[in-house]
Each structure stands twice: as C-alpha cells, then as structure tokens.
Amino acid sequence: METARVLDIFKEITRIPRESGHEGPITDWLCKWAQEHSLAFKRDSTGNVLIIRDAAPGKESVPTIVLQAHQDMVCEKVAGFKFDFSKDPIPYVIKDGWMIAENTTLGADDGIGIAACLALLEDSAPTGRLECLFTISEETGMDGAEALEPGFFDGKTLINLDSEDEGQLFIGCAGGLNTNIKFSVRRTAPISGFKTLQCTISGGIGGHSGDDINKGRANTVQLMARFLYSQLGEGFRLVSIDGGGKPNAIARECQAVVSVADPAAFKKAFSAFASDVKDEFHTTDPSLSFECAAVKPALEPLGRKAGERIVTSLFASPHGVYAMSQDIADLVQTSTNLASVRTSKGQVEIVTSQRSAAQSERRAMAAKVRANFEGAGAKVRHMYEYPGWNPNVHSKILKYTVDAYRRLFNTEPEVKAIHAGLECGLFLQKFPGLDMISFGPTLRGVHAPGEKLELASMDKFVALLDEVVRKFE
Ligand SMILES: [Zn+2]
C-alpha cells in the first residue's frame, strides 16, 4: 500500500459531503465502491457500512482484522467564508509539508482513516480476512457505534484509525456518566437590615473535563462554594448560585447572590479570598477575576438551613483527579467534574460527570458524589452512562504493532490511553473480548477551520498499518 494512493482516495473523499447526521452521500459512495471492487459489503439501518475482503490463498487461518474509521466529519468554517458543506468540495492546499484546509475543517478526522482502509482493500498484498467498518455520527454522540448490532462483524481484533498523533498507540479510553443533583428549596421573606450582594468569579481557563482534568485548573463553582462556606452563619443567607456550562467542561465562571448582615465585612473577606486564590492559581489560571457589588434582589433568600446544606455539599463535593492508572504513566484513571450549578425560584440543580476506564471505579466515583449530595437532602440521578476501554498492556494486537513499529522505524512508539471517550468503548460493550488498538497520522487543529494533516507522518502511518496487517497471524 502506497501513501500516494491513500492520499488520492482521501482527495476523492474531500469531494463527498459527510457532515455528522447527513452521511447519506458518503454511505452510498462506500457501498458503490465495494460493488465496483467486487467486495462483499453490508449496510445497517443507521448507515454503518462493513466491507469485507476474504483471506488470500494460504492466509485462511490468519484471524480476521477489523479496520475501523468513522464516516462523518465536523463541519466548521471561518465566519463569513462562503461555503456549503452539503455540496461543496473541501478546499485544501499543500504547504510546508502539510495538507491544510485554511477556511474550513479538512475532514482528515476521519477521512484519512477511510482512505487507508480502502487503499488496503484494493492492495494486492496477500492478507488474512479484512473487515472494514465505517461508522456514522461519531462526532455527535457515536450514534453509529452505539447502534451496532452484535454480530455485525466477525473479527476479534480491531484497529481504530481515528487517532491524531503519529508515534502514539492508544490502548484505552475512559467511560463516563453524569450525576445530576436537585435541591428543592423554599424562600423566606427578606431579613430586615440585610443587604444583597452579587459576587462573581470569572476568567478561568476551564477546558475539557477529560483531557484537561489533570491540569490543575481552577473550578470556579468549587471556588465560590469554598468562599461561601467560610461565610456561613447567622448573618448569611444564600439567594442563588449559578456557574459552569456543559457537563464535559470545567466551570470557567460562577456567580452567587447573597443576603448578608455585614456587607462591608463580607466584601473584605471576598477580596482577601480573591488574593489568596489568585496566588494559588497564578500559573494555571492567571486571568481569574473577582467582583463583589451590591445589587437589587431579584429573588428572596433561601432559608438558612437550605442555603447551608447547598453551600456545604458543594464545598464537600469531590472534583478533579481521583486515581491515576497503575499501568500507564501520567494517565488519569478516574475523575469527577463538578460541572455546573443553576438556581431557579424553587430549585437548585447541580450537574457533575464522572470518568474512568474501569466501570467499577466510575460507578464508585458516581456513588461518592451521590452520597455527598443525598446526605444534604438532594435528589440524585445517574444518567447517560457510556462504557470505557480498560487498557490491556498484554494485548496481542499491541504486541504486533509495537514490534512492527520497532522494525520499521528503529524506535519505540509511545503506548497511551486517553481519559475521554472513543468508539472503542462501545465496540467492547457489544463485542466482549475484542482486542483493539488505535493509531493514525498526525493531525492538528481538528474540529476547527485550519485543520491540517502532516504528510511526513502519513508515510509512517501507512507503512505501519501495512506492516501490521500483512504480518498479523
Ligand atoms: Zn474522529
């Protein structure tokens, strides 16, 4: 298999619309491609496609390899750039060793994976049986992987071609779930003599609750709870607390409205707290900003006990890394994200999310969060659980791939796992015992205009894939 051929096929793919949820044209194209090459294929009702190449003579006893890529791409363009992802070919240039889409996403994530599969299927080198699986809507919730029927493919070994760093082999990912908390609250009449203040903490870097959870960044909801906890007492009432955004983001801002007996003392304490926290986060979050000012009350204060239960349980809530992997250096094994809090008249809602490659640890983490908030009188629900892929450092396909990498490049690949979700977790749930690995060429800026593919890494990626598939037995 030649890099030039993989790139030619990829260039063809850049002309086919394939936005997540609208994969029809690429799905049809893949089926037609299989027909034209006289290869058996099937397509399920969601649009997942499997193309099959039988073993070459003499290779019948080689175990089947499943090669997998996703059909869809993230469609983003520069504001004002006239472009229609539903029909226009992706414009790209070749510059300084990179293939770049300057004003749109390139779709090398994961078009390059599709192209590599097709190039292998049409290659004349004898291999065992190959099953090429093309899933839909990976980017928007892994709907294709989620909908896969058990038995859709036969292979017990799968190579996922959706990784973005040449030289890195991925052997695991985290599963996750959300744990949502609801406090039902009653409000009391305003207390005479108390003044209403609004405090804001903003300017946090935030980031992804999987990839960035170990970077020591400020969680502004947690910080606000920490400050409010220091102010609990007869002279304090909570009115509202609102902060954070998506369940998978670290909270970048938080705002609390309070009713207090001594506003001057409260403000003084807040500014002392601000200077402590700025010190603590001077490296990871140098732009944290703190404000506290009088406001007109929009809501009546919560009862003292209710406010204390909410502040105390938010303060006590775990957040961040809980355990590191015992097998892979620097890999977060288990974590939780105190993602957001929202106050309405009769309710305070808190959203948290937990991740771990190990289901038991993920559920224990979620139970710990539940225990904390249930103890404070909240209703707690776990939801949206998805499975992980616990790394197996003794995997057979890993051994073949590492050996091939050493032979070809005379150097060691990095063996890694990620603390975020991959389709592989879902495959493992449907196909227990599946032995998997994920690798790919180097991509930068994926999911945003300017996405680019490093051409030098393509040669190594293609050589590695070719070597592994030809030598596997
Ligand atoms: Zn992808």
What does this protein look like?
- The protein folds into two domains: 3-173 and 389-471, Zn peptidases (Aminopeptidase, 3-Layer(aba) Sandwich); 176-386, Alpha-Beta Plaits.
- The chain has helices at residues 3-13, 24-36, 108-122, 143-147, 220-231, 263-280, 304-316, 359-375, 396-409, 423-430, 455-471, and strands at 40-43, 49-53, 65-70, 93-95, 98-100, 130-135, 157-160, 168-173, 175-184, 195-202, 236-243, 254-260, 289-294, 320-324, 332-343, 347-356, 379-386, 414-418, 435-438, 443-444, 452-454.
- Helix 1 crosses helix 3.
- Strands 1-2-6-3-7-19 form a six-stranded mixed β-sheet. It has a five-stranded antiparallel β-sheet with strand order 14-15-16-9-17, covered by helices on one side. Strands 4-5-21-20 form a four-stranded antiparallel β-sheet.
- Helix content is 30%, strand content 26%.
- The structure holds zinc ion.
**CATH class wording of the largest domain:** Alpha Beta
Number of domains: 2
Content of β-strand: 25-35%
CATH topology of the largest domain: Aminopeptidase
Biggest pleated-sheet summary: 6 strands, mixed
| Spatial order of the strands forming the largest sheet | 1-2-6-3-7-19
**What name goes with the CATH superfamily of the largest domain?**
Zn peptidases
N/C terminus separation: 19 Å
CATH architectural group of the largest domain: 3-Layer(aba) Sandwich
Low-confidence segments, given as residue ranges, are none
> How does the overall form come out from the CA principal axes?
elongated
Rg from alpha-carbon coordinates? 26 Å
Give the proportion of residues in helices. 25-40%
Which class best fits the helix and strand makeup?
alpha+beta
Bound ions, cofactors and other small molecules, one mention each: zinc ion
Number of strands: 21
Indicate the mean pLDDT: 96
Question: How many individual helices?
Answer: 11
